[in-house]
Amino acid sequence: MALKVHVMGNPGLPALFCVHGFASNAQIWRPLAEVLGDRFALHAVDLPGCGESPAGDDDLDAVIDELLRSAPAGAIWVGWSLGGMLALAAAARSAPRMVSGVVTVAASPKFLASTDWPAGVPRELFDAVYAGTDDAAGTLRRFGGLELKGCPGSELRQHLKWLQTHAQQPAPDSSTLRAELDWLAQLDVRSVLGKLPVPVRHVLAGQDAVLPVACAEAIASLTGRSGEVSVLADAPHALPLTHAPALAQVIDALWQQLRRPTLQSRVAQAFSKAATAYEQRALLQRRLAFQLLDRLPSAGTGESVRTVLDLGCGTGYCLPALQQADPQARVIGLDLASGMLAQARAQWGDRFEWICAPAEHMPLDDASVDLVYSSLALQWCDSFSAALAEIHRVLKPGGTVLLNTLAEGTLRELAEAWATVDDLDHVHRFPSAQALLAQVDMTLWTVDWQSCADEVDHHPDIRSLANAIKGVGAHHMQPARAGLGGRRSLQAWMAAMERFRTPQGLPARYRVLSLRLTRRPD
Q1: What is the SS3 assignment for 23?
Q2: What CA–CA distance (Å, rounded) separates 24 from 164?
Q3: Considering only 12-26, 126-140, 318-332, which range has the smallest mean pLDDT?
Q4: Active-site residue flag, 81
């Protein structure tokens, strides 16, 4: 099935991929395009049987796959009602590679009410709408009134006429309406909320006559982040038509969030800057990397390893050992920092393949890698779960992942010393080992081995300790305030660090979570 996509605005602008709701078509996004046209190109799709898209086979999975094929890569998805549920389902499959963010509009993660979801639409109301679909024209008329219920009288007539003239023409037939209702009944994306590796915003309508307004509180409870949910108090269900400027503000705010410098961009700069001295200073990193190599699958156990990926390869010091495990294997070194790869190429030349890319967006084919090795790299990803999802994509079923990453407790003494000086964050905050393990989807992976342990290096003085951290690019301490106050703060921190001195010296602690995972068969 090929879906019609209407491009509203300059195609060269950042892309929004807009998915309409039940009994509508792509034209519902015209008011939003008028507001955002100078900042975004709206790629508005007609669902199967709606607008200019032909009817399909009604298979929900096929529809989601076709939406992903139709969307510009990396677009922000904006979905209204049914479209919001489809956007979340698509993001669960392909974020962040295809979906960089999601805005749901008057949408529920589960449409029908149930004992475990009282915030949904009552079954009797749903059944009544379904029963009336034999009269497609009557269904469109009645549902249009329901979508706009709560509008003032003069605006109601104006909006209803626009809806019927533009967003319901050409009119979907009875079979299309029933198919969309079936999708509404099937979709349940509650498990996705709070776990997507991209930012999400949920916009609900305070006067919604389709979805209970209690849905807002229920969504906030599922995500655990109330800031993701907003309610437009005077809006009806059809708020893309009636409240386009308010919706545009939410999209603008999400776009600004995506444009902020990411952790990875800062990390790439720091590691590139440290590249020339990395080999001499990364003693602990090398030690942990070679310890992890001891966990490689033994030769002759299972299928041969044809392709090996060192994810976060740095200057490439582990690649020869990875190649020795299977001399015939294709060995790839991938790193975010171009400076690190320049050092690696200078040392190893074309003996290995080199790729400069983030872990969440690897330019590798699906199921093309047999073994992924990654030591002390994934902690610098913007999203650990997104990196794991991308590793799962490129790894063959039955393939192995060996990884070290840093967890909460890393550089603990440095953080505690700063806490005696001020309440600012001077040391990067790492998630707990439990939080990281919770992001390993057991339906996708088998955990063959895991370990969490502290590795501590000791240094004779503050200068040596700071140089060891900065020298390998792994520093994310915020500078003290400039001027006299800054010097005093730094001196106070140095004095506080002395409380942690041991006979071996000042500690630099790294809490290391190590995992060996196997990708389950599809």
Answers
A1: coil
A2: 9
A3: 318-332
A4: yes
Q: Which residues, at least 6 apart from 291, have a Cβ–Cβ distance to it below 8 Å?
A: none
Q: Is 309 helix (H, G, I), strand (E, B) or coil?
A: strand
CA separation for the pair 255, 77 (Å, rounded): 11
Is residue 96 reached through a cis peptide bond, with omega within 30 degrees of 0 on the bond before it? yes
Select from 19, 17, 22, 18 the least CA-distant residue to 211: 22
**Measured distance CA(228)–CA(516) in Å, rounded:** 34
Q: Are strands 15-19 and 41-45 parallel, antiparallel or unpaired?
A: parallel
What is the pLDDT, as a whole number, of residue 436?
92
Q: What tokens were used for 71? A: 């969307």
Judged by DSSP in three states, 18 sits in strand
**407 half-sphere exposure, CB direction, 13 A CA radius:** 19
Beta-bridged to residue 188, according to DSSP, are 110
Rounded Cα gap, residues 126 and 35, in angstroms: 33
Quick: pLDDT tens for 359-417. 888 888 889 999 999 999 998 887 788 889 999 999 999 999 999 999 999 999 998 99
* Calpha distance 399→393 (Å, rounded): 11
Compute φ and ψ for 36, nearest 5 degrees: -100, 0
DSSP state of 430: P
Give the DSSP H or E segment for 231. Answer: strand 229-232
Identified catalytic residue from 20, 159, 237, 243: 237
100, 108, 159, 208: the active-site residue? 208
428 is catalytic: no
Give the model's confidence band at 477: pLDDT under 50 very low, under 70 low, under 90 confident, else very high: very low
Say which of 81, 108, 374, 514 is annotated catalytic: 81
pLDDT in tens, 198-210: 899 999 999 999 9
* Distance separating alpha carbons of residues 181 and 133, to the nearest angstrom: 10
For residue 367, the tally of other CB atoms under 10 A from its CB is: 15
Q: Are 144 and 138 in contact (CB under 8 A)?
A: no
* DSSP, res 499: G
